[in-house]
Amino acid sequence: MTTNNAAFVPPWARWTLATVLGLTLLRLAVLKVSPLDLLPDEAQYWSWSRDFAFGYFSKPPLIAWLIAATTKLAGDMEYGVRLSSPLCHAVAAFALYRLGATLGDGRLGFWSALTYATLPGVTFSSTLISTDAPLLAAWAVALLAYVEAPKAPTIRWSAMLGLSIGIGFLAKYAMAYFVVAAALHALWSRDARGFWLSKRGLLAVAIALLCIAPNVIWNATNGWATFGHTAANAAWNDSATDTEGALPWIGSQFGVFGPILLGALLVRIALLRRHPADLTERFLLCFTLTPLVIVLVQAVIARAHANWAAPAYVAGSVWAVRWLLATGRKRIAAASIVLHLAVMLVFYVYAAGVATMPLPKVLDAPLAFRRGWSSMARDVRNRSYELPYASIITVDRKTMAALTYYLRDHPAPLVIIPTGPVPGNQFELTQPIDAKTGAHGLLVLPFEGDSPVTQRFEKADAVGRLFQRIGTGRQRVYRYLEVTGFKG
């Protein structure tokens, strides 16, 4: 691939710095004033951050480490928990500026950084803490290091490559897509094969393995909990056998990457036979299509979430912009950014609580699922003071996570009733109900109707309900029961 050593080219570097910093400050401000509650997954990650470890039940440890650091600085409120997310996306954007400038010029770097920073998926991700934000930052830095390492006069970039790959794995196991993409690129490029077989390439591999080793050891000593959960999450046993899972996933990618950009990529792919890719485009193609194809196969086999192929759009941002600029279609790239900025502003207005007008159900969904958790916890707190309950009990991970965060100063222990003989989540592993906590408790059930779980107590008396309207056409219902004598 062709590279350009003049990576920091004014005024493009200054414009990139100004725009990315501006967007990051906007995102931090939205987080600061937003009334949105932590999602159960976010609350679960926060609970992990209270106990340092090299692994957790369903995810590698980096997300918990980041939350531990940011809450140490900014406190345990929602803002402190989510603080690292916009910062990670800023790191990714700056890395893509350098990557674009190295592969082309400062103009390509600026457009690449701005395109990534305004993607709808990044806009949404910046308002919550998830494993995607640190993964995408590590992926972007790894891409840059992979380009710089073969021609660098020292081993600095090789070490950075290994470190970023290792950190990516500690963020999310989807970093494995990077390894697959690098292997495919090595098959396509003699220079890439030479690098990976050189001392510098082997150094990068060694550093990556050294970073990953503590998590592998943790898994080995904990029944391979995270690896097993990751495999179970793929749900291959629930095979769809057709495209019923793939079509919704394909449609969701237009929302993650944006309809204009994804359309441009599809057009470029269609034209590859007529206009073959050069060395640089082959590199970007490998790291864009590999995650997309892997997750598409997963969607056909069973199911896939919209964000599972998010790493594709790191290199995809550079690839799409490079082709649009090279073919005189700058206005299309600009139109995409304008569209994404408009979506961003509308979303942030609602996320910040500035606008309260009801949205259509499909548009309100990203916000609706982040409402009601704190008010539910307040209601549980008030009811728990009515009687001297020995514990607060629930049966599902989401409710348990929300209560763990929003009742973090409550004196009564929070426990969960396991769903089977083998723990199904971190709470069932660390906070299961026992005879003492089940002697007399307030049971919180997040559904209507009779539940077989009540049969596991000697006595279960209904003491109330909670109806919550959380958004357009959506509500949650909880039942409260006073339970005594847990049978096991």
UniProtKB/TrEMBL annotation:
Q: Which organism does this sequence originate in?
A: Roseiterribacter gracilis
Q: Name one GO molecular function term.
A: pentosyltransferase activity
Which is one Gene Ontology cellular component term of this protein? plasma membrane
Name it.
Answer: Glycosyltransferase RgtA/B/C/D-like domain-containing protein
Q: Which residues cross the membrane?
A: 12-30, 159-188, 200-218, 246-271, 283-302, 308-325, 332-351
Q: How does it sit in the membrane?
A: Multi-pass membrane protein
Recorded superkingdom: Bacteria
Give any single GO term for biological process. Answer: lipopolysaccharide biosynthetic process
| Positions of the Glycosyltransferase RgtA/B/C/D-like domain | 58-218
In terms of InterPro entries, this protein maps to:
LipidA_mod_glycosyltrf_83, RgtA/B/C-like
Chief place where the protein resides: membrane
Q: Which UniProt keywords apply?
A: Cell membrane, Glycosyltransferase, Membrane, Transferase, Transmembrane, Transmembrane helix
Q: Where in the cell is it found?
A: Cell membrane
